[in-house]
Design a protein that fits this description.
The protein is α/β, with parallel strands linked by helices. It has 3 domains: 242 residues, Aminohydrolase, N-terminal nucleophile (Ntn) domain (Glutamine Phosphoribosylpyrophosphate, subunit 1, domain 1, 4-Layer Sandwich), CATH 3.60.20; 191 residues, 3-Layer(aba) Sandwich (Rossmann fold), CATH 3.40.50; 157 residues, Rossmann fold. Strands 3-2-4-1-10-9-11-15 form an 8-stranded antiparallel sheet, with helices on one face. Strands 5-6-7-8-12-13-14 form a 7-stranded antiparallel sheet. It is globular. The termini are close together. Bound molecules: 5-amino-5-deoxy-1-O-phosphono-D-mannitol. The site of 5-amino-5-deoxy-1-O-phosphono-D-mannitol has 16 residues, from α9 and α16.
Length: 606
């Protein structure tokens, strides 16, 4: 999604800082980008459509010397209005005095715009952000902070705002209301505001995490934080963002790099948490879980993370014997749900900033539900707001198509399931066998990456001659079929659908013919015989089939071999095949793999 940033100059060059930050955030939203530079009574704005490189090109001919004291930047993922320069942030008022960048959405912007139009204001863009600029102009007070405070009650929705004005050149105001925002500091007493903590790497090493409703007024080198109109103080926290920098090394795309990182990522997930010798599990979060009497686990997440949930739900049912509910955040928020004291609500999110999951989390907490987060980004909202949780330790994931974050989610969730299974009295030999087989999973993923990759690439190159695909799986492999299908459509732009294999005959079989191939995920588990029947069913209609399996008993038009493992652990292997299949097909089609069209890395809008 969009990102917002503000920087007050002391030592670094303002243009360089803003550009570095925009490049780091480009993976979130990349329809257009813009900057504004401020010095007393003068503001320079530069905007460009498309990649940040286009903005960089424009900036080459513009001098921003050190007389400019502050700057703001924005990378836009279009929501209100098309991808045009007019709609690109920063936005301003009629007199080009007030400038602001904005994340997320003002829901009542149409009503506000109508009222302002009646008062004689005209608008150059279709954005909700310009409406805020005109509202500020309409409610001008004797300081910028007072001006902003007088307008906030008029805004409905959720947003983060960074605002400065030529009329108050000493001031700057930041607002967090439902969209992430942090203040960064360094030893040079420089101050930064960023919608993404990680993007502060190298610039700031201390932050204040703002909460919803916080309004920050900067004046000169000082600042105040207000909440509900009252001054409040907040702790400054030390962070280690350096360690989270992501580099592409020699891989052509971040996605491929991240796929190949997965064996290491899983080892990180297990490190210090699984003692493979004594076959015991350890984590602070487990001690928190010990205090609870959990009878039901409800999982809430969005798409890729939701697929990890479905796999996990099977583990919690099969290994722990718990009832589970799996919910998509965006749908859950409309439900009239009841919270029981024996429920645990588990939220999983790579970014920890997915708006739908955060909204669901707030609803659950308002009803007194216990919440557990499984999150990758350490300083994210979900990580901070849930009652307890575990980090997935995948490291920074840059590719919009999530890969290593998914595998890390699976690993973390399995550890929680195994811990509860142990407490619930799973047979010790079965428990020990799963732990033993789990230890070998990183190596088995390596086998796929280094032995089977060429075959997968070859098959993927042939598949791009087709336009429609079915991804089929059963039980543990159904969520993997869903994830494989998502990855495939997300980066190849070819149509694919996932189905529970047996459901074909309830409708989709009508589409099976030689033009619409299927990818059947059929490891040597309890479902193999059923999958052999599915294969026959599809081939009888001349459908071509790619089979992902470790069994000799099933042969498709193309076969992709995976190593054998414990029946509970196949998802770790089959998903890697589906990621590579999608990657190579997209690469053959020359797609923008790391930044697929219309998508953003973290979906911070509803
Ligand atoms: O950050 P989250 O895990 O909450 O994100 C959820 C989805 O937006 C995300 O998994 C999305 O589906 C990916 N682009 C899939 O590759």
């Amino acid at each position: 999604m969009c990102g917002i940033f503000w920087y007050k100059w002391k030592t670094h060059n303002i243009k360089d800082v803003l550009l570095t930050w925009l490049k780091r955030l480009e993976y979130r939203g990349y329809d257009s980008a813009g900057m504004a530079f401020l010095k007393k009574w003068e503001v320079k704005v530069v905007k460009a459509l498309g990649k940040v490189a286009n903005l960089e090109e424009k900036l080459r001919n513009i001098t921003i010397d050190n007389s400019f004291e502050a700057g703001m930047a924005h990378t836009r993922w279009a929501t209100h209005g098309g991808v045009t320069l007019e709609n690109t942030h920063p936005h301003w008022d009629s007199g080009q005095s007030i400038f602001l960048v904005h994340n997320w959405i003002i829901e009542n912007f149409k009503e506000l715009k109508q009222e302002l139009t009646k008062k004689g204001y005209s608008f150059y863009s279709q954005t909700d952000t310009e409406v805020i600029a005109k509202l500020l102009e309409d409610n001008k007070k004797d300081t910028l902070l007072k001006t902003v405070e007088s307008v906030l009650p008029l805004l409905e929705g959720a947003y983060a705002l960074l605002i400065f004005s030529k009329d108050f050149p000493d001031e700057m105001v930041a607002v967090r209301f439902g969209s992430p925002l942090v203040i960064g500091f360094n030893d040079q007493k420089e101050i930064f505001f960023s919608s993404d903590t990680q993007a502060l790497a190298g610039f700031a090493d201390k932050v204040i995490f703002l909460d919803d409703g916080d309004v920050v007024g900067v004046k000169g080198n000082d600042f105040v934080i207000k909440s509900n109109g009252k001054l409040i103080s907040k702790a400054i926290e030390k962070i280690d963002v350096e360690s989270l920098k992501a580099e592409k090394w020699d891989f052509p795309h971040y996605m491929l790099k991240e796929i190949f990182e997965q064996p290491e990522v899983l080892k990180n997930v297990f490190r210090g948490r699984v003692d493979f010798k004594s076959k015991t599990l350890h984590a602070d979060a487990f001690r928190e879980l010990d205090k609870l009497d959990i009878q039901r686990i409800v999982f809430i997440a969005s798409w890729t993370s939701y697929h990890a949930w479905i796999v996990a739900a099977r583990w919690f049912e099969d290994l722990v014997g718990l009832d589970t509910g799996v919910e998509i955040g965006s749908e859950f928020v409309y439900k009239n749900f009841k919270v029981k004291p024996t429920d645990l609500y588990v939220f999983i999110s790579q970014s920890g900033e997915t708006a739908d999951s955060i909204e669901a989390l707030k609803l659950v907490q308002a009803k007194g539900g216990k919440t557990f987060g499984i999150v990758n980004v350490v300083w994210s909202t979900i990580a901070r707001v849930t009652d307890m949780g575990m980090f997935t330790r995948a490291g920074t994931e840059v590719g919009v198509a999530s890969t290593k974050a998914f595998v890390a989610q699976l690993g973390t969730l399995l550890l929680v399931a195994l811990y509860l299974a142990y407490k619930n009295g799973i047979a010790k030999p079965e428990f020990d066998k799963i732990i033993e087989d789990l230890a070998a999973i990183p190596t088995k993923i390596e086998e796929i990456l280094y032995r089977e990759n060429a075959n997968i690439k070859d098959i993927a190159y042939q598949l791009v001659d087709y336009y429609n695909f079915f991804f089929l799986g059963r039980h543990y492999q159904l969520p993997i079929a869903m994830e494989g299908s998502l990855k495939f459509k997300e980066i190849t732009y070819l149509h694919s659908e996932a189905y529970p294999a047996w459901e074909l005959k309830h409708g989709p079989l009508a589409l099976i013919d030689e033009k619409n191939p299927s990818i059947l995920i059929a490891p040597n588990d309890l479902m193999l015989e059923h999958n052999i029947s599915t294969l026959e069913e599809v081939r009888a209609r001349k459908g071509k089939v790619v089979v992902i399996t470790d069994s000799q008993a099933i042969k498709g038009d193309w076969n992709i071999k995976i190593p054998s493992t414990n029946r509970f652990l196949y998802p770790f292997l089959t998903v890697v095949v589906s990621q590579l299949l999608a990657y190579h097909a997209a690469q053959k089609l020359w797609r923008e793999i790391d930044k697929p069209r219309n998508l953003a890395k973290s979906v911070t809008v509803k």
